[in-house]
Design a protein that fits this description.
single chain; mainly beta; Methylamine Dehydrogenase, Chain H; Immunoglobulin-like; globular
């Protein structure tokens, strides 16, 4: 069971779902390593893949001082603890890391720091940590989510509580640590944003709040409102797109993903038809469609209470985790189509992990990687890999830019690459390593797939690269001129 803190009491739901007899067959599943407390424990955030192919993440507790860690793990399972948090520099790093354009990683802690209400930090690939901001409660507090680096180079995030009304905030922070509060939630527009933000193709940010909204009091949580989906401009103008009512889900604890169709997809932790959470689609203007209601199968063998969000894979489908339910009541990994057809891919049985609170990342080798909050040999959580037969691909960073913009391409076995194209237009490039190519958007390029030609075949980007036309007041990627 998770250790209770202020933030966990707000966003925690106890899951009770009986074990079932029949399971969907797991595919190629590997437990890469188990946490033992000394090297960290209870990872709650998803992993990120970097240029050398390794993954970086955080554990909420454990390490030298017991307050959590930052770690690196190779694709073959070798773990290195990069930093153990001390109370003064932050505690409970629940959120994910983001690797910024300067090569460093940025993240958050839910508590600790100078005033005890959490921090924003920077950490180098070698493990040197700098606290950029300690929250005072007046400017927010209890950060459960990670950050997103926007196209202006600054970071945007949420605080679960604090701010003018004590119900949470949205903030912007520069790489040097200057913080600006963009919005203070007041209840009618949401309460407790425990999920992070996504910057959409229109330049605005989209996110969710756990409680609040204009709906009636939510009987599922006992709090006013069942949560919201919102849009906020980079300047801080917030629009509530949808208020959940229970019948369509309640308590969205995770953020959104913008899919290739331009819509957003997400999950709610509770409610829906059977009371155990939902998967939904919502348009940029706020039209919501419930795609799936969990616990539709006897004894919740399809999973229950999806705490984490979704990832759209290169096959166009969405993949995620349910923190409870499944054959052994330890949670599941699932696939769901954009039309709402769900397939259970793996049932956790505690020996291979349990309670996957974090979402998945699809690595450039085509496989999925993730963490479980508990379970494994020592009971402190695991890192796992799930292979589903999807082929390797390349990933661009960033995923948008205009002609002349610098782009990094991540992949596997890129050493002997012979060509790079942006939607069919050839680009100049240089191979940095077997997992990294550097290039620029060529003249004549249009929005579409990026392809890398190698002696053994052509690798295609997992998402379309958006070629932007410069304009007078647009948001621009860091380091690029209009």
């Amino acid at each position: 069971m998770r250790k209770l803190s202020f933030s966990s009491m707000v966003c925690m739901v106890f899951i009770f779902c009986a074990a079932a007899v029949i399971a969907s067959p797991a595919q190629s599943f590997t437990t890469m390593m188990g946490f033992d407390g000394v090297n960290g424990g209870n990872p709650e955030s998803f992993l990120i893949q970097v240029a050398d192919g390794s993954f970086y993440g955080t554990t909420r507790v454990g390490g030298t001082y017991g307050y959590g860690t930052v770690f690196k793990i190779t694709p073959w399972g070798t773990l290195t603890t990069l930093h153990s948090f001390g109370a003064a520099e932050g505690q409970d790093p629940w959120g994910w890391l983001v690797q910024a354009t300067d090569g460093n990683f940025y993240g958050t802690t839910a508590s600790g720091g100078t005033y005890g209400h959490g921090t924003v930090f920077k950490i180098t690939p070698g493990g040197t940590l700098t606290t950029l901001h300690s929250f005072t409660r007046a400017d927010g507090g209890y950060l459960e989510a990670g950050l997103v680096q926007a196209s202006n180079g600054n970071f945007y995030g949420t605080t679960l509580a604090g701010g003018t009304h004590g119900k949470g905030t949205i903030f912007e922070i520069t790489p040097s640590g200057t913080l600006t509060t963009l919005h203070n939630f007041n209840g009618a527009d949401g309460i407790n944003p425990c999920a992070g933000l996504v910057q959409a193709s229109d330049g605005n940010f989209y996110g969710t709040t756990f409680y609040g909204g204009t709906g009636a009091n939510c009987t599922y949580s006992g709090h006013p409102g069942c949560g919201t989906v919102f849009k906020i401009t980079p300047g801080g103008t917030l629009t509530t797109l949808h208020s959940f009512a229970g019948s369509d889900g309640a308590d969205p604890s995770a953020g959104l993903v913008q899919a290739t169709d331009g819509n957003f997809y997400g999950t709610t932790l509770q409610a829906g038809t059977y009371g155990w959470g939902t998967v939904f689609k919502i348009t940029p203007t706020g039209t919501l469609t419930t795609l799936y209601n969990f616990c539709s199968q006897p004894n919740c063998t399809d999973g229950a209470n999806p705490w984490a969000g979704l990832v759209q894979a290169d096959d166009g489908n969405f993949y995620g985790t349910a923190s409870g339910g499944g054959t052994y009541n330890g949670g599941t990994v699932f696939k769901i189509t954009s039309e709402g057809t769900l397939t259970t891919l793996h049932n956790f049985d505690s020996s291979d992990g349990a309670s996957p609170w974090a979402g998945l990342v699809q690595a450039t080798d085509g496989n999925f990687y993730g963490t479980t909050y508990v379970g494994g040999t020592d009971g402190d959580g695991t890192v796992f890999r799930l292979a589903l037969g999807l082929g390797p691909f390349v990933e661009t960073k960033p995923t948008s830019g205009w002609v002349g913009a610098r782009v990094i391409i991540l992949g596997t076995n890129l050493t002997d690459a012979t060509g790079v194209t942006f939607n069919g237009t050839a680009a100049r490039f240089s191979v940095v390593s077997a997992s990294e190519i550097r290039t620029t958007v060529p003249v004549g390029a249009t929005t579409g797939e990026v392809k890398v030609t190698t002696p053994v075949g052509t690798l295609t980007s997992n998402v379309n690269f958006q070629v932007i036309t410069p304009c007078g007041d647009c948001f621009y990627p860091m380091g690029q001129d209009r």
